[in-house]
Amino acid sequence: MTTDAQFVRSSFDAIASQGDQFTDRFFQHFFEAAPQVHSLFPSDMTQLKNSLWSTIGLVAKNADNLSALSGQFADMGTNHAGYGVKPEYYAVFCETLVATFAEFSGTEWNNEFEGAWTRVFDSVTQMMFRGIAKKAA
Ligand code: HEM
Predict the structure, then answer these.
(1) What is the pLDDT of residue 134?
(2) Could you say which of 19, 27, 41, 100 is the most buried, measured as most Cβ atoms within 10 Å of its Cβ?
(3) Atom of ligand 1 nearest to the CA of 86
(4) 0.85 exceeded by the pTM?
(5) DSSP single-letter state for residue 136
(6) For the segment 35-62, what is each residue's pLDDT rounded down to a tens digit?
(7) pLDDT tens digits for 61-79?
């Protein structure tokens, strides 16, 4: 049986060299879906796009043991609360990431990839939310 971690890793590996195109397209979709968040972002997105792509790579590589990254993602959640990111933005962010993976994966994509990435990003969100809770406490 193919696990979520295997689906996630293979779909990331297939497009690993297309990080610039992926993140450009992702933010284009994200700002269309949630225009109200645009003002939270810096005008030069180069560093953020690189950092987002390497984080997604890290998630893909560790998808079978995400809890190893829980401290790192909790800290990232705390930082995000500081940027003014509201919890309700996470669902559209993750849905847009999955939709962009579908777009870049082409005919390889199916419901199993969709389900695997959705569950993995959901776990990442839960880990980030623990950092938000810590900040609010
Ligand atoms: C799975 C969820 C998410 C992941 C993995 C993620 C990843 C990242 C990474 C790696 C960075 C750069 C490093 C850092 O500052 O921590 C970053 C920055 C940022 N993210 Fe996220 N993010 C997520 C959700 C969101 C959401 C929902 C928003 C909503 C608007 C958002 C907005 C931002 C902003 C505004 C920055 C800072 C830009 C700057 O001032 O440099 N992120 N994110």
Answers:
(1) 73
(2) 100
(3) 29
(4) yes
(5) H
(6) 999 999 999 999 999 999 999 999 999 9
(7) 999 999 999 999 999 999 9
Q: State the alpha helices, DSSP H only, in 17-110.
A: 19-33, 46-61, 70-83, 89-105
Cβ-based neighbours of 121, under 8 Å, separated by 6 or more = 59, 94, 97, 98
In the reported structure, the alpha carbon of residue 1 is separated from the centroid of ligand 1 by a whole-number distance in angstroms of 33
Q: Name residues contacting ligand 1 (CB within 6 A).
A: 37, 40-42, 48, 51-52, 55, 76, 79-80, 83, 85, 89-90, 93-94, 121, 124-125, 128
**In the chain, where are the structural domains located?**
4-136
Superfamily of domain 4-136: Globins (1.10.490.10)
Q: Which whole-number Å values give the CA distances from 47 to 29, 50, 110, in the listed order?
A: 19, 5, 31
Average pLDDT estimate for 115-123: 98
